[in-house]
Design a protein that fits this description.
6-stranded mixed beta sheet, 14 strands, globular, single chain, alpha/beta, 575 residues
């Protein structure tokens, strides 16, 4: 990141401007470095996990105290006109659609999201744009300074990383005087740091699935309980279509809390006039997210107009805003809404970046359902691109998974995609260093590398299983005695198909797909692109097998972790 930044500065003519921009960048680095000290280290986080989240009930009360120490009371928070969204899959996309729709309707928007892809400041967006480095730095030191001045008298001296950023988001939105603040829940809902919000205008729940099970519980009903924790008495709430078990919990909690809950059907391709409803984010699931966003924005705009006590007779344009979704049709949407949907951008989700000789397909899918959707999108999009290329096209998977996610659930469907090679690496940019924005103290480097190797071995095992099933239906093939000793040694340490570590089994891996693990994203991309990516170093370039050479084009699917996707975007740049 430092080298890339300095290269950018070199194009600036004025040395005074270079000095000024460098100083802003340097102060931002200092701020983010200081912010990272609020991350819980790996050992502390493991202790919290073993406690089963017993301290989580204090999260919201502590958040109220932190906000008050910064000079933000609950009454101040109430002044923000908030759309609050929880969910497992698509909550970020839903919020992005909301932001784009309302911005295209002329409102000043604030959007707090997590995690960030490349820079921390992405989490705070005003009118769809991350706040500048200069504003980020000023707001950061303002909030930190007030917290540090009061920490001697506080029982819990400083907030953790995400709690701090949540307080900072409130500070930013109040200072920027936004018309609407769109708040994406971090984890869960009931005990999430964002749930100090007591009077949102409307709440939404996107599609639910199994994720963060060590914190939220291992069943869909337990997870749904947490997600519904953002419901507030009398505040309208909407949910995407859910599994029956999840929906039952959402409905029961809504009834207990006194919150009207409505189920939102998916957004069709056409409205009632036959006009296209085009989305700026690819993927079939996005029609669920877009539909949820449309309803949330409709409630918000209705509330806004009511608050402003507009008594004028409705014009033809006003009538256009009276749109609703139902199970049979979508009435005509206002132009601003359709434009908001069409022009919405949310990097790292069903995103393609095309370069000479290589295309990156980026999706931070990390649950079974989201990986299945990612595969569907990748197969369709990559096939369409391949039709436009005259020469040979190869497909490569770049994968990592983190946290308590079961890698086998994510990897097994990927094995069936017909990749020519599968590459595994940790969410570390360079083998010797990381940018301050990408620094993660919650896991050790050793544990990350161990997870990478385990992921690769699992992929190999599943690939062999698939190939054995295919070869069982065909005639047996002779053993290829040219298998690499390194590959065989790696597999000898791991049971493979009931302990069968034969040379024949090892060679079947070579027949099915090439696998490779790397200590960092940069090395993995250098190998996967065969040196075609100009933003990675060739110093660690490893010779690729002949099977992969001389391809006209390389298609790389990056998935399994939004942090991995962010690391790749940070290296190659975003279109």
């Amino acid at each position: 990141m430092t080298t890339k930044f300095l290269r950018t500065l070199s194009s600036v003519a004025s040395s005074a401007e270079i000095n000024k921009k460098y100083e802003v960048w340097r102060r931002t680095q200092e701020a983010v470095t200081k912010l990272n000290t609020l991350q819980s280290n790996a050992q502390t986080l493991e202790k919290i996990r073993k406690q089963g989240g017993k301290r989580s009930e204090q999260n919201v009360p502590n958040m109220i105290k932190f906000a008050e120490r910064v000079g933000i009371s609950l009454d101040d928070v109430d002044k923000l006109s908030i759309i609050h969204v929880s969910g497992t899959k698509g909550k970020g996309s839903t919020c992005a659609f909301c932001e784009s729709i309302l911005r295209h309707q002329g409102y000043k928007t604030g959007f707090f999201s997590s995690p960030h892809l490349v820079e921390v400041r992405e989490r705070f967006r005003i009118d769809g744009i991350p706040i500048s480095r200069e504003k980020f730095t000023n707001y950061f030191w303002d909030v930190l300074g007030k917290l540090e001045k009061t920490k001697k008298s506080a029982e819990d001296p400083m907030p953790a990383y995400f709690a701090f950023l949540t307080v900072m988001s409130l500070h930013v939105f109040l200072k920027e005087k936004v018309d609407v603040a769109i708040m994406e829940v971090g984890i869960g809902g009931q005990y999430d740091s964002t749930n100090l919000v007591r009077k949102p205008v409307v709440c939404g729940v996107s599609s639910l699935g199994l994720d963060h099970t060590s914190i939220l519980g291992e069943t869909i009903d337990k997870i749904a309980w947490h997600k519904a924790g953002i419901f507030k008495p009398g505040v309208p709430a909407f949910t995407s279509l859910q599994q029956e078990a999840a929906l039952n919990v959402l409905q029961n909690r809504a009834k207990e809390i006194g919150c009207p809950l409505t189920i939102v059907p998916s957004l069709p391709m056409l409205d009632s006039n036959g006009d296209d409803i085009t989305l700026g984010i690819s993927g079939t699931m996005q029609r669920h997210n877009a539909a949820l966003a449309v309803q949330l924005c409709k409630v918000w705009t209705d509330s806004r107009q009511k608050d402003q006590s507009q008594q004028e007779a409705p014009s033809e344009d006003d009538n256009n805003h009276q749109f609703i979704l139902n199970h049979t049709e979508v009435k005509t949407l206002p132009t601003a809404v359709t434009e908001g949907l069409r022009q919405c951008r949310w990097d790292g989700r069903d995103q393609r970046i095309h370069k000479t000789g290589v295309s990156y397909y980026l999706d931070g899918a990390h649950t079974l359902e989201s990986v299945q959707q990612c595969i569907e999108w990748f197969k369709t999009s990559s096939a369409e691109e391949s039709k436009q290329i005259s020469g040979r096209v190869i497909r490569i998977l770049l994968f990592n998974s983190t946290g308590d996610r079961e890698a086998n659930v994510l990897i097994e469907p990927l094995v069936d995609c017909g990749f020519d090679a599968a590459v595994f690496c940790p969410n570390i940019l360079f083998s010797t260093s990381n940018t301050v924005d990408a620094t993660n103290l919650t896991v050790t480097k050793e544990s990350q590398l161990n997870r990478v190797l385990a992921n690769m071995l699992l992929f190999e095992r599943l690939a062999v299983k698939k190939l054995q099933q295919q070869k069982h239906e065909k005639e047996s093939t002779q053993t290829d005695t040219s298998c690499s000793a390194a590959k065989k040694s790696k597999l000898d340490n791991d049971s493979l198909e009931n302990g069968d570590n034969s040379q024949h089994t090892v060679c079947m891996i070579e027949d099915s797909v090439i696998t490779k693990d790397f200590p960092c994203i940069s090395s993995a991309l250098t190998w996967a692109t065969q040196g075609r990516e100009p933003n990675t170093s060739l110093q660690s370039f490893t010779e690729v097998p002949s099977k992969l050479r001389n391809a006209e084009h390389i298609q790389i699917l990056v998935t399994g972790s939004i942090h991995l996707v962010g690391g790749v975007i940070g290296l190659i740049g975003s279109e």
